[in-house]
Amino acid sequence: MVASSSAIPAEKDIDLHQLNSGQTSVPPRYVFVGGLHRSGTSLVASLIAAAPGVAAIASAPVPEQEGVYLQGAIPHTARHGIPGSFALDPAQHLTEASACNRHEVAQRIAAEWAPWFVPADAPLRVEKSPVNLLRARLYQQLFPTSLFVFVVRHPLAVARATAKWSVSDEAALLDHWEAAHALLLGDLPFLHNYLVLRYEDLASDSTHEIARLSAFLGVALPAPDAPIANRNRDYAGPPAAAAGPVARRFGYGDDPLALAPPQVAMGAHYFRSALAGMAHRDAAGR
């Protein structure tokens, strides 16, 4: 089920959209985009939202059109989701064991988000909030057919881009990156459907990465309006601390301009595997 390479091939003759197309009564599926602040989550969410059949939150009176601010079922105060520190708060890592794992929570979130998604009848709904990085296991319980897209970026670039919003020094911000992504690595084996995108790969080979994203979602994403620039050069320079073991598993060293192949599973798609199995069974007449 887990793809160890960076690509998730599309299965022939399988339409992932059939799970909730307009021809059925199945509710829209959520695509949750998560990642630390300044990792490229807004970029990825906009790429997804540009595809036909995808709705996004629009014209909402909240920062960055983030759905986390538009629901009251899961508390999100000024003490939640703080850039450079939220992953250090155990209460913000939400899993199956959360007290929020209740049917009425899912109902309330869906009802409070619904008025903001445009177009309202799209079969997929993309929602981007940085804290989604640590909420995927809970959201999978609340919305079982969800798809998760995680965006990662070199820790030094994230730390230096986030510094203006944080009272923490660079070493502490790098530690926060390690802690957040260690939690993510621990969560991935529990998720049915996820894709990990590196910001740097999007910039260096956007065609390939958008093709991966399209195959994962089962929709045709258009090419971006403009080339995706790698802004990591703006944050180059000797780091306050060496890259940690988690960063190295994602292919990151001390230089934000250098990349190595990731040593983590960059995607899994249980639904695609299940549909492929059924198609094979039907073709065999079994």
TrEMBL record:
Cited PANTHER family: PROTEIN-TYROSINE SULFOTRANSFERASE, PROTEIN-TYROSINE SULFOTRANSFERASE 2
Record flagged with keyword Lipid biosynthesis: no
Biological source species: Sphingomonas baiyangensis
GO MF annotation, one: protein-tyrosine sulfotransferase activity
Alphabetized UniProt keyword annotations: Transferase
Stored Pfam families: Sulfotransfer_3
Protein name listed in UniProt: Sulfotransferase
Keyword Transferase attributed: yes
